[in-house]
């Protein structure tokens, strides 16, 4: 599904990602953990196509196409979804308007007809149940005045409605209480399927109690310094990141 | 200003004099001739005047506009229909003269008057005389003199004491003639404790340009409550000068909203004098693109204590357009406990577009709350990326955000029928890719 090879990325004059290689197969769930400032969001943004990052070398292939050459909207239409660490508030654009626009842009790309109003509202309402959101949120401006937890749920709602093939969740668990964490995790688990892959960027092992990853990677100082299975997350819980960062320092 | 130009308008006056409304009334003749003399003296405002620094009206001076007949057939009916508002009475004026066939007169109700100025000067001349130019007297400006001398019609609305009028009165001014002149004068009197809604719409179908010079006077007695909306949707070659001069009595309230989407060169003025414990809100939205120049000039004067005012204007400027916002708030020495806020937020969509924003607070009292803020910015790139990451293309994302910025002002409009007219005009004026009315 996704193959990242030796990706180097700069922001302004600073090298942030220093050679990331990662293979995500169809249906797999990869967790990326690591200390603050290690480059996790940078990786997520580069995959989603945000401006302001310079890829100095390396590549990312998505379903055999050059992901990095596509504009962000095309990536989205091809099934890449980023749940933002800090979702943006957009006054004046209602949630339902955004969802309608997004669903139909993606359907058009896939040569499908626009959903009629009834089918659309039916789809959205069924997905809202999944994330336990009240219908009134549909008519409010995107994320405007939402609490931290509501914003994260709204990201998961969008993901559920858009049904991506590759979902990248950037610290969707941060700042959630246990109930919200369970709602978000249930939402993700309900969407797991053999052709849908996930990259879960997280700071804490806690999320992985609810969503069982196939692989865990540790990103430190712009490199993946260790990869393993779900048990690696538990080891990190016990030992912290310090031993790995020293390891990374010694290696460079 | 050239002598030849002044002579042109003096000759205009002589040519149409016999057909001007109220010509038999000596007090009005005197007022017109005095105004004409003032205009011949000073002409149109010059950029040397502080209030006109950012708006050069030379393009108006280069033209010779003349009063034209108002053939009913020349009116684009489908355009007019776009301005119809459910439940509203409408008075339609074509090239500055009222047109009965196109108007939908209000249901007759006890004591209310809503008719053309020409009719009012025949049937209610004393009422008109009592108020005419009363609010304007304090103002001086070439356009006002021009208007007083040359107005060919307008609307007269009188709402008696404690009368609450449920349906709005919609004044629609249509200009059709090439190089035509639409000079109108409105007078609205709201009796003590009365309530009413007025809507002014300006539309034009002539591509070769015309001048629409409209002046409204509004008098609110104690506790009167008026909601007034103006839609400036002149043709894109049209010139527009529009001024509202309002005097709000004690405990009175004026809610004004200004939507300015059309015209090649447009100047909108709103002047409000507030008495003790009275309040006003002034909202505005202007859009300009191409080489449009749109100027908003507002003045709120808190003359007495305990007044309250809120002003919020938003501008969107694209291509080589130029916008001006001059907002003045004056708090007189006796106007203690005044609470006034003013904001002007602008969105520049092109690097060639320009806005001059000039808030002015003149405070002579010491116990007041006054605040103002101006912002000029571009679309937020983070928001654009957020939308694109959901599959929306860049152009649509930008248009959605631009629409959202503007729509905030439209959402404030209370009456659904009016809101939908404004929203349709807004959608027509903005690039439409990515914005779908039926989804809103
Ligand atoms: N726009 C930017 N300009 C400058 N530095 C940035 C920018 N974005 C991120 N960085 C830097 O890149 C590093 C990685 O940041 P980020 O990817 O957000 O880390 P993480 O998500 O792992 O906490 C940090 O040192 C951060 O300060
Ligand atoms: Mg981060």
Keywords:
heterodimer, A: 252 residues, alpha/beta, Rossmann fold, 9 helices, B: ten-stranded mixed sheet, 10 helices, 20 strands, binds adenosine-5'-diphosphate, binds magnesium ion
Tell the overall outline of chain B: globular
Count the beta strands of chain B: 20
Overall pLDDT of chain B: 94
- C-alpha termini separation of chain A: 30 Å
CATH architecture of chain A: 3-Layer(aba) Sandwich
Model description:
The complex is a heterodimer of chains A (252) and B (440). Chain A contains 9 helices and 12 strands. Chain A is an alpha/beta fold and 252 residues long. Chain A has a single domain, classed as Rossmann fold (3-Layer(aba) Sandwich), CATH 3.40.50. In chain A, strands 6-9-10-3-11-12 form a 6-stranded mixed beta sheet, with helices on both faces. In chain A, strands 2-1-4-5 form a 4-stranded antiparallel beta sheet. The longest helix of chain A is centred in the middle third of the chain and has 15 residues. The two termini of chain A are 30 Å apart. Chain B is α/β, with parallel strands linked by helices. Chain B has a domain of 211 residues. Helices cover 23% and strands 37% of the residues of chain B. The chains are: A alpha/beta (252), B alpha/beta (440). The interface between A and B is medium-sized, with 33 and 27 residues. The site of magnesium ion (MG) has 5 residues of chain A, from helix 1. Adenosine-5'-diphosphate binds next to strand 2 and helix 1 of chain A.
What's this, in brief?
The complex is a heterodimer of chains A (252) and B (440). Chain A has helices at residues 40-48, 72-77, 95-109, 117-130, 148-162, 178-191, 207-210, 230-239, 242-251; strands at residues 2-11, 14-24, 29-33, 53-62, 65-66, 80-83, 90-94, 141-142, 166-170, 197-202, 215-220, 223-228.
